[in-house]
Design brief:
CATH topology of the largest domain: Aminopeptidase
Largest sheet: 9 strands, mixed
Helix content: 25-40%
Number of domains: 2
CATH superfamily of the largest domain: Zn peptidases
Shape: elongated
Structural class: alpha/beta
Length: about 475
């Protein structure tokens, strides 16, 4: 991945030394330079969000340079998400023009995070397996945010968050013959090695079985690839509750014996997206030095059909003693999460969030705009929802009700992993998970519709890294609570 340096510069934006500078234009407002304002009056530059016009001006040291005029929409509607969208439009145009250095004139207080995130997220590309053309070596090298009130700390937060999202996207986009459970464990080791306040614990197949994680072990028994339970412990301080971040990491999901259709099965390399988000959020939180305590649990395995694989009708016992009928081996994510959630509770987590590409039904319900949110605690839900809204990683709450809770009751065991009839499929999946958190406040994020092909202007095809920024924001808010 290309690394882009991010800096801030107090003072007059026009005094920058970059080859391309950016001015934002709000509805009904004027640009400070008369020559550039003429372009607005002529209709060449427009204030609509995502509109970008190109002009030129004399550079301070002589010669000419580009000026991009970026539409920002209505000032009263301008927020971090609008900043990300505007920055993405500018970044795309700057790339087309061959810009090497870019400077944004800060359009509004607090816009630094959105401008940095939108730029860096837009410019990410996954190309390590493609032969590169000669001009692919060129690209943006520096991003500057300029203005009298610019915040270096805000720009730094945006830089760290965007870089973490892009690293999660890289993990997601890698093929499953590379990004297997051992590879993810290696990335966790890199994170732990980089930060004194992060400790790593890894459980292999034998230890998963010995610890009584029968649901996780059952999924992993069908694959030759070695599974890992990845546990990162971040000890940044004791402000706020002990957080538990749990991320599903099925590095490839065939469905097991309940085999998926072949069409688009290649996308099942993305079934580890929740785990990728959790891992990279911990790296970012450690870089930011947030004064919180987090236990991150990532169960990583493939789900494969073989002579060793679990079968429909099998019964397994989870870490917390609950027994589970396996009526569909393609409902494997909730099985590995059952033990991961139980382990997070066992480790003392006082507030838990899990992220999982859990159900196709959530895509039917919510598309790719919102992740599905489910919770057993209204106050904790409000905290998580606020973090989602603040970062543009939107969620929408769906209900957990005692009537739908009955649907996951088993016939021959305590629970059924795939109730017949397919009623309320995303809701019953969440009900299933609720059996493994006890009374601990918990939010389940079903990110199956948002983990890839998100459709936002700053995220193109492939992985989105959804959830990384929300988890960082949640940790920050918990520290401030």
């Amino acid at each position: 991945m290309r690394e882009i340096a991010v800096t801030v510069r107090p003072g007059a934006p026009e005094e920058t030394a970059v080859d391309t500078r950016v001015l934002g234009l709000f509805d009904g407002e004027h640009l400070p330079e008369p020559e550039l304002q003429q372009l607005v009056e002529l209709g060449e530059a427009k204030s609509g969000l995502r509109k970008v016009a190109v002009a030129h001006e004399e550079a301070p040291g002589g010669g000419r340079r580009r000026v991009l005029i970026a539409g920002l929409g209505k000032r009263e509607e301008f927020d971090s998400e609008a900043a990300r969208v505007a920055a993405a439009a500018v970044a795309g145009r700057a790339r087309e023009l061959g810009a090497v250095s870019l400077s944004w004139a800060l359009p509004d207080d607090g816009a630094e995070v959105g401008l940095v995130e939108g730029t860096l997220l837009k410019l990410y590309s996954f190309d390590r397996y493609k032969a590169k053309a000669d001009d692919d070596a060129n690209g943006l090298e520096t991003l500057e945010i300029a203005g009298s009130g610019v915040s270096e700390e805000a720009a730094r937060r945006g830089h760290i968050a965007a870089a973490a999202v892009n690293r999660a996207r890289e993990l997601q986009n890698l093929p499953s013959n590379v990004a297997d459970p051992i590879f993810l464990a290696g990335r966790a080791q890199e994170i732990a090695d980089a930060h004194a306040q992060v400790e790593l614990e890894l459980f292999g197949r034998d230890e998963i079985v010995q610890r009584g994680m029968g649901a996780f072990a059952a999924v992993a028994q069908g694959t030759h690839a070695e599974p890992r339970l990845i546990v990162l412990r971040y000890s940044g301080g004791d402000q706020g509750p002990h957080l538990g971040f749990v991320g599903k990491a099925v590095t490839f999901d065939t469905g097991g014996i309940s085999l998926k259709p072949g069409a688009k099965m290649s996308e099942m390399k993305f079934d580890m997206s929740g785990g990728a988000a959790v891992l990279e959020s911990i790296d970012a939180i450690a870089k930011l030095g947030l004064p919180v305590t987090i236990t991150a649990v990532v169960p990583a395995t493939e789900n494969m059909p073989s002579g060793h694989a679990i079968k429909p009708g099998d019964i397994v016992t989870a870490l917390n003693g609950k027994t589970i009928e396996i009526n569909n081996t393609d409902a494997e994510g909730r099985l590995i999460l059952a033990d991961a959630l139980s382990y997070a509770v066992e480790q003392g987590a006082e507030r838990i969030v899990d992220l999982a590409t859990l159900t196709g039904a959530i895509i039917v319900a919510l598309g790719s705009t919102h992740a599905g949110l489910f919770s057993n605690d209204d106050d904790w839900f409000q905290e998580v929802d606020a973090a989602c809204t603040a970062t543009g990683e939107l969620g929408w709450r769906l209900p957990l009700h005692r009537e739908t809770a009955k649907l996951v009751e088993g016939t021959f065991a305590d629970l059924d992993n795939a109730p017949a009839g397919r009623k309320a499929s995303s809701i019953t999946a969440a009900h299933f998970l609720s059996n493994f958190v006890g009374d601990v406040p918990w939010v389940h994020m079903d990110i199956a519709g948002t983990a890839w092909e998100l459709g936002r202007p700053y995220v193109g095809k492939g992985a989105s890294g959804f959830g990384v920024r929300a988890l960082i924001e949640l940790a920050s808010r918990s520290a401030d609570a």
